[in-house]
Amino acid sequence: MSAPDAFTTLAEPMLRQAGKTFVVASVGQLLMTDGFLDQARAAGVRILAPSGAIAGLDGLRAATEIGLDAVHLKTRKLPLSFGKSIETDDGPVATETITEPLCIFAGTARQSIAAFPKNINVAATVALAGLGADATSVEIWADPG
Q1: Cα 47 to Cα 37, 83, 92, 94, distances in angstroms
Q2: Among residues 9, 115, 142, 143, which one has the fewest Cβ atoms lying within 10 Å of its Cβ?
């Protein structure tokens, strides 16, 4: 079972564990599981989310306090990290045939997590520290370099 698939199974019992700390491996599911953050807050559950690929999350968080008005995440991953093929607007592309950087997604953090739940937890981390899942724009590039 992958981390996104296991989230509900593991997270739901935590809502009955007031005062406990829940360490989340699949940060994206914090945004995709409707109401979980509010329920955890109300239940007194502390959530720890790893910063992963983002350095300076404290700076991003501080910037939101002084009026940050836009957050854009552009991430690059090796094509094979998406599996054997990637679904694009022009149809499926075999990842082994990608020889130049290819933008495979552009949209919000919430949309990126829905489209790539195993590959883009970084978008959820940035969204949680910044302006939120729907106000954070994301580009995902399959880049062999």
Answers
A1: 9, 30, 37, 38
A2: 9
